[in-house]
């Protein structure tokens, strides 16, 4: 085979595979699959496109480099300039994937992304426009979910206690397990058993030896909601050459569940002693702001997920701040305040009456805060050499407050729309077109990352990354994810929620029931009484008519 030179590149390696590799069912796959079927295979070999790097020696052997097949090479063993800079950039850009999603820095899975990128040196240029900050700071959407979770939990708990006068702790925690666990368990079961049969191509072996291996060893981290607490200790657990878990993005459900467990300690005083309860919740809100502020200042950490070549800083920020519930509690507590305001206004409608100036001020403040959070660190959030460094004071201030500030801005949108001051925003967010997707959001969240993994491991040629190509890929992946989510929802989520409503629905509050009388049993007013009443109504000085007992219309309206 002759060396292939193109625009200064050299042949680095050639990846080979048989055209239709034989697939043997493992015991787990056999159990999960229905009996029957036959797997055919062919021994016709084939090679995929060569893997190019910007520099490196020519390797004419028809094999995948050791570092790609789950046997990472040490950094000093890599050819100069071969992979170091693209690796460091991608690790920092996709820190959610490389650090706490794939399991550890230096994992072979990140090598896949680097080998598949035909233009790694161009990637820094794609993130320079200020508009890219909307993607770089996309993890603020997670804080939106924390806000929504806190709001809904607060409304649910206060509504239950207002109706029954007590808090049912057993039902509260049981609902959480029933709501979240079945879809996670079903997804883990599928991924750990037969998902490997759906991945084909030159990297399919890596999928099984790295991702599938870690999934089968650590699925329990997902179903116990503690993966976020264990990610910093993966090396101590011996997970040095496998994925962290089946659903690494379930660190969010872990944090959310851990906060959910502690919510009654914050909300119950608010119900029994309102003044003291508000002070108690204010104390915890202040603590949720102070903890990340102190940690960022003490360890000199990033204030947020940054685009940087410093992968060690990315690791430290994720392990000490991003994944920890005590550092993600501030938007959740803002959600508790939002739920409390909505609950209080429901019982006191006068709180919902805002002047036009108050409404405009609220929207202006929310918009300004949101824009400041997203674009406020744009000049620092750039991986290019020469980018100015944020001072420690700026990092502490932004890192401690920006998540709560973002949650407060979104909370205004929730309150304004709920009280009728949303205008076109309310029309758009409450449009019926969102209702079908709203039933699938949880399963979309669970299946999105595994499907992206499977598609990436099934690629047979390098990618050339552009914004348009990424948009096209996103739309295609979303379509597949929605289809899979429909099936998962129908199989695991909807049946369990239906059973919960049937078996565990709390009894309705006691109501006075008026006996229904037949028309011939209803007493009627005499004509004399009716004429006298009519005369009195026409006279301003006449006595007011009392409602005639037994009037059919009044009885029916009362029953309604």
TrEMBL record:
Record keywords, A-Z: Membrane, Transmembrane, Transmembrane helix
Signal peptide stretch: none
Region (Disordered): 514-560
Comp. bias intervals (Polar residues): 524-541
TM helices/strands, residue ranges: 189-207, 219-235, 255-272, 279-302, 354-380, 400-421, 442-459, 471-491
UniProt xrefs under InterPro entries: O2_lipid_transport_reg
PANTHER family: O-ACYLTRANSFERASE, O-ACYLTRANSFERASE LIKE PROTEIN
Entry protein name: Nose resistant to fluoxetine protein 6-like
